[in-house]
Amino acid sequence: MARGPAGAAAVLGPLLWGCALALQGGMLYPRESPSRERKELDGLWSFRADFSDNRRQGFEQQWYRTPLRESGPTLDMPVPSSFNDVGQDGRLRSFVGWVWYEREVTLPQRWTQDLGTRVVLRIGSAHYYAIVWVNGVHVAEHEGGHLPFEADVSKLVQSGPLSSCRITIAINNTLTPHTLPPGTILYQKDTSKYPKGYFVQNTHFDFFNYAGLHRPVLLYTTPTIYIDDITITTGMDQNTGLVNYKVFVQGSEHFQLEVRLLDEEGKVVAQGTGDQGQLQVPSAYLWWPYLMHEHPAYLYSLEVRLTAQTEAGPVSDFYALPVGIRTVAVTENQFLINGKPFYFHGVNKHEDADIRGKGFDWPLLVKDFNLLRWLGANSFRTSHYPYAEEVMQLCDRYGIVVIDESPGVGIVLTQSYSNVSLQHHLEVMEELVRRDKNHPAVVMWSVANEPASYLKPAGYYFKTLIAHTKDLDPSRPVTFVTNSNYEADLGVRLGSPHLFSSPLPVFWCSPDACSNALQGRTAPYVDVICVNSYYSWYHDYGHMEVIQLQLATQFEKWYRTYQKPIIQSEYGAETIAGFHQDPPLMFSEEYQKGLLEQYHLVLDQKRKEYVVGELIWNFADFMTDQSPQRAMGNKKGIFTRQRQPKGAAFLLRERYWKLANETRYHGSAVKSQCVGNSPFTF
User: Annotated catalytic sites, by residue?
Assistant: First the structure.
């Protein structure tokens, strides 16, 4: 008989879990199984923006109590999508305040009549602050626009003869100094220039603040005694793969658990019982990154089966979780996956497209992954916020390595380093780790992008934030992305530069390898230095001849000071597709290519020493706020916003395939064209 939730939360031991914190409540992706069903709510929803002066008319008139159409006119709004670019009303594109969504849903009869069925409403992303009602009853609130949240609505849908329910969601996209990302509201009080009450949203990041229901909304079911969460860590003991698991159960303290690990052929390779343990897989297939191995992205399936006895009879629940067996480690000059040096040659992205804004779209997602593989990219950073869960799943499946970044972008105001802001940032990291902890593609957490880390409060802020993230997940390194001077950056520079002394100093390793040292560690704040720089773009305009000297100096000073591996996490140049000029001038395709080539000359020198990656900014052009510096958005993409290649895409493709052949673990050289039916055969 397995222990209940309290027992399941107990630490298994330092060899398995290090000092990981137990997160309260699970966020397993809703998968159908013999015990679970799901109902997609994508499609057209009723929509209204609250244009009242105080933006609170919807609350004052309680729009959630009756169907939205009864309180005034509504629009059809596709979900998922941003609301900004769908309509023809210019006021809506730049709207700041509360918007209201509503959907009437017909439920299967068994969901409304079977009291042994638990019905859950899940919202993949609502940007930024959301309040949810079902049949006029408040069920949930959530702050943060990039992570999922849920509400158990069983009692509301099983309380009477109704076979339908009305879901109302109010969303506010206002950003303040304490939100992630932060922003400020500027009130213009000069009535000779602006109407009374006029205000605008100001931000300190360079992408458009799209808003709405950006990701799928759905209902799903579980039994009333159910598998709430699963946590996986993996390791290797010679040729034996180790899969450490913890299962959390809600609804009862009396249950039994059976755990099986299946290979890709459906064969059981290991099994166990109880809510925690270790599965050993002889001659295990490892999860390798794309282009690093001839058989990348191998995924096992962890099947968890729960059984329990109740007064009403037996209850069972079943959940299957994809599992990749791999290890990650960081030394003073290398990033190791499965004990082999890994070099990031990839991109930064945005969730951004015409009309959809940040709305999730399967055809667009598959197109992007096809372009990534065509390019020879093995990695990307989720700049500058967590991406959809389905993106992470494809990364696992295709072997695309991920630096998983929080929405901590634009943290430049002193107010944004307050205790209120820090507490929210800690909570966001908890939500991010809870959601993405089991993805083998995720190899590092990034807590922020380009914060004002030279400000005095930044030292304590990032020390606390990074330590908390490491406590949440000791199995991965942690970084943040800086554009500060190496001497001024308080987020990187404080703390001891060494974790242990050894012939090859290791700054971070998995709990299997260094759990004892973790007990009293004086670890540095970040494990890998990620640096953004735009030489000959934002300064020394047009002078590409200074790039090599300035870039080499950047690398040498950072490494001399901290003795940590470095990733060139952003570099690039704005380019208008079809603009040509020789000799190259800024904004021409020739200038973008020339600038990249200058960076590559230095990167080729330093990757032999301590540079472990390069991520181009950006994969594709994307929308920004309007300004004289932005012509219909940011044009630093190597692809247009419509995913058509600029000249730099071909340059980068040639480079990435060359790098792939140089850094391949074993097997024959890779080729840049598919020769078989498998998407992994190159």
Answer: 450
